Give the backbone structure.
Amino acid sequence: MRGFIGGFVAALVVLALVVFAAVETGVVPARADGPPLPGERWAARTSLNATIARQAPKPPYPFPPTDADVAQGATLYVQNCAVCHGTANTTPNAVARGLGVVQPPQFNKHGVSDDPEGETYWKIEHGIRFTGMPAYGKSLDQKSIWQITYFMKRVPDSLPAAAKSIWENPSQVAAPTPMPALPDPKRNAAKR
Ligand code: HEC
């Protein structure tokens, strides 16, 4: 039994050293344009789905949308999301192409109308780790995120007129209002 435990501990130490060496020597890639590591896609997908199953809001959902809410969702989408996910007549731009490990889906090709709204809401509020998909809970209030969610449920084929017009002609949307300055990052770093 002692030999077994000793061997087990030795194996753990060797494993920790291998992982440490892989990180230290740059074998674990830091670049954004590589292929995923073996198992990376499986681990990311599985943990994402499990987290969403546990945490995503379940129906009935708040802020039942009017067509004006869906149009407001379209406006917020153009301001916050189009840079990666595109609009009706775009091809992937430099930002979208540069997110090489996991490409942002272009929603003019296929939307997320099959996904429950709670799942899409969760993804917008919390983002998706390791992919470049940001968390908007830090910058948009819940109602705005639901408006985007209800817009997403209808993209690209089931949009009411005003939202469809924005989706097809995004240049009519004004730039977003600037947000208040963030606290000084150096002071934040000192606190950690
Ligand atoms: C900086 C680029 C970037 C921005 C900006 C961005 N996303 Fe994403 N998004 C991504 C990437 C990359 C993925 C793919 C993640 C994955 O496959 O796990 C993604 C995935 C998604 C998904 C899941 C798609 C699917 O098929 O399951 C949804 C929904 C989504 N984004 C909505 C949005 C919305 C809404 C906004 C704006 C509020 C937004 N994204 C802004 C990069 C971005």
Q: What stands out?
A: The pocket of heme C is lined by residues 77, 80-81, 83-85, 99, 102, 104-105, 112, 120, 123-124, 128, 131-134, 136, 148, 152 (CB under 6 Å). The CA atoms of residues 31 and 101 lie 9 Å apart. The mean pLDDT is 93.
